[in-house]
Design a protein that fits this description.
By secondary structure, this protein is α/β, with parallel strands linked by helices. It has helices at residues 61-76, 87-90, 98-116, 120-123, 143-156, 171-181, 199-204, 224-231, 245-254, 264-267, 270-283, 296-305, 355-361, and strands spanning 3-21, 24-38, 43-48, 130-132, 135-137, 161-164, 186-189, 213-214, 236-238, 259-262, 287-289, 329-330, 340-342, 352-353, 362-369. The chain binds 2-succinylbenzoate and magnesium ion.
């Protein structure tokens, strides 16, 4: 493929309800979209899934914009690249900045699938057209508000509930959730809010039979997590520290956890996700697709990659209306009564990109052409 033009578009999209993690609250997303175009007029769309501040990882909207505009887009535009699967290699000389890279990388996969007129999920090697879905529920102002949110999602059919936890919102909250909702499929995500000094507190969570405990310790750690996993029954799920296939291999070798939350953005796109999925599948480690409060474009990519065989647990891939008053794709992502999403049969990501809606939300644009 030869990409002739890359358009970068930043949109501001308010969330219908704030999202709070142990590192802070988000009310409005600043999302970077990448549109790639080849000489035949085929197009593809991708999304940089970074946050508004460098809190989840080092990348954020400003850094990703600069790296995309000044470095990555000029590196890719005009070059002949064998296939979408080689776009990662074409950007390899640049270190880190994986979320920025994934915007271009996933867009190229969409373009390639569209030009072959095959659904992206099949093109990626997906096997399960119907994927299992869970939800991630942020820290709320009160436990009553949390109960209300959990009830809404259970009524909608989601297969598991993840709640964000932090030292001020953990044992007592989970205890009340268990008392109120019984044995629902429940897990916690700490986003690195603890250290090994909190081991007694983390051990005490074993009594709640959580499906897993996501990222209790430091965002860049896989050693202390291995120590912790030896001390607790609850399976640890790693999120932040798994940025590459090598990270996954090392974490599996060290037994730092038993499950991996695999995010396209965090690892640099579909090619990297595919490699990690294979490593985990061969090692018998389940993966599931995480979310970063994506717009419809990133969400469509998450649906496609979730169809791979190794994605055996419900992901944080849920309906558009949980996030946005109006999404930027049509149709919007909807979830069945059984808590599943069916990957579409149309070419590429399989959803129409709503240019008018994007134009309404756009705060800046850049064009890099050959
Ligand atoms: O840790 O999985 C996380 C959102 C932003 C940053 C980090 C995380 C999350 C989520 C939300 O849990 C998942 C989603 O609904 O998109
Ligand atoms: Mg997480």
């Amino acid at each position: 493929m030869q990409i002739k033009k890359i358009e970068l578009i930043e949109i501001n999209l308010p969330l219908v309800h704030f999202f709070e993690t142990s590192f802070g609250r988000t009310y409005e997303r600043r999302i970077i979209l990448a549109r790639v175009e080849d000489a035949n007029g085929n197009e593809g769309w991708g999304e940089a899934t970074c946050g508004e501040t460098p809190s989840y990882c080092e990348e954020w909207t400003e850094s990703a914009w600069t790296v995309l505009e000044k470095i990555l887009a000029p590196l890719v535009v005009g070059r002949t690249i064998e296939s979408a699967a080689k776009v990662w290699d074409a950007m390899k000389q640049i270190r880190g900045n994986r979320m920025a890279k994934s915007a271009i990388e996933t867009a190229c996969w969409d373009l390639e699938a569209k030009s072959l007129n095959v659904p992206l999920w099949r093109h990626l090697g997906g096997v399960n057209q119907e994927i299992s879905c869970g939800v991630s529920i942020g820290i709320q102002d009160s436990v009553e508000q949390l109960f209300e949110k959990i009830q809404t999602e259970l009524d909608a059919g989601y297969q598991r509930i993840k709640i964000k936890i932090a030292p001020h919102w953990d044992y007592d909250v989970i205890k009340r959730v268990r008392e109120h909702f019984g044995d629902i499929t429940l897990m916690g995500d700490a986003n690195s809010a603890y250290t090994l000094a909190d081991i007694d507190k983390l051990k005490s969570l074993d009594e709640f039979d959580l499906m897993m405990l996501e990222q209790p310790l430091a965002y860049d750690d896989i050693v202390d997590h291995a120590k912790l996993q030896r001390e607790i029954k609850t399976p640890i799920c790693l999120d932040e520290p798994i940025r590459s296939p090598d990270d996954a291999r090392k974490a599996i070798e060290l037994k730092s956890g038993k499950i991996i939350n695999l995010k396209n953005g965090r690892v640099g796109g579909h090619t990297q996700s595919k490699e990690i999925e294979q490593i985990c599948r061969e090692a018998g480690v389940p993966v599931w697709c995480g979310g970063m409060l994506e717009s419809g474009i990133g969400r469509a990519h998450n649906i496609a990659i979730s169809t791979l065989a190794g994605y055996t647990m419900p992901g944080d891939v849920s309906a558009s209306k949980r996030y946005w008053a109006e999404d930027i794709i049509a149709p919007e992502v909807e979830v069945s009564k059984n808590g599943t999403i069916i990957a579409p049969e149309n070419g590429g990501i399989g959803f129409e990109v709503k240019r008018d809606r994007i134009n309404e939300l756009t705060v800046r644009k850049a064009k890099i052409s050959f």
